[in-house]
Design goal:
single chain; about 350 residues; TIM Barrel; Hypothetical Protein Ychn, Chain: A; 7-stranded parallel sheet; 3-stranded mixed sheet
Length: about 350
Amino acid sequence: MKKLKRFIIPIFIPHEGCRFRCVFCDQHIVTGRGASPVTSEEIRETALQYRMTSAHWAGERELAFFGGSFTMLARERQDELLAVGAELIREGIVDTLRVSTRPDAVDETALDRLIEFGVRTVEIGVQTMNDHVLKVSRRGHTVSDCVKTAQLLSKRDIEWIAQIMPGLPGDTDETMIQTARQVADLLPGGVRIYPALTLSGTGMEDMFRTGVYSPPSLDHAIDIVKEMTIIFESRLIPVIRIGLCPSIELEKRIVAGPYHPAIGCLVYEARLLDTMIGAVNKTEEPSGKTVIYVNPRDLSRAVGAGRSSIKKLEQRYPGRRFDVMADHSVDRGRVRTIGI
């Protein structure tokens, strides 16, 4: 599978360029940045600080503008941000630029300008590939916009990343899985999966308080995202993040939803547990001890937090005991079992 080996230097521009207020959104909380717009001086200082911390990084460094809708910013503001990025490229502090925007805010002219300034990656807030869910979420664009933008980006010398948000109002298991399949068909260079969280002060909080919206449980979300990761990986599309970056301020504002500071770890633990169950089902020992061998890099996932995966196996197979051991000969994501 293709790996995105770049050192990302994040610059947050929350809500800048946004002409719609989606029911789920409060980017000031999600990004951890207040309402004051980031300045060129701050961008340069941040880039230099990250450069110092990554002095031994051998790959590319990418200055990334996250939040907001970059290509919907006023032309002057775009030029201001892109110009400082281009200067940092010329000085050898960063190698490329990245921006995030909406599916209905990309055209040939916008892409020409981005490429001219050194933008190599564009992240698109797809969120869902269901028009009803988009409408209920007040996104202000359609599935058709997502498809057209993906096709446009795929024809240019630029990589694009899809951001999706399962569990929005109106979502069902079927629409969430279909979103993953349809996004995979568009062949992005990578995908971020952010299970929808209900934050205080958002339209989704009102929907939750009045009973219009009921978010999925954490276990349900893990099951859905688990299936999504399988879909993307089957198409060799890297899942580069699952869940929002945890912060104290974010946790204070969560009203409801499948939040866990390490939800990505839980998803991959669940996937490996499924693999272990499949292997145990093929063994013939009705009792006794079963040793499960995994790749050393999968050892913590196989055991689970607080030995949770081992406990689930013992609950599923009463009378049997399980142990997990590392074996370099086992491929990542695979297991080998031996009954004792």
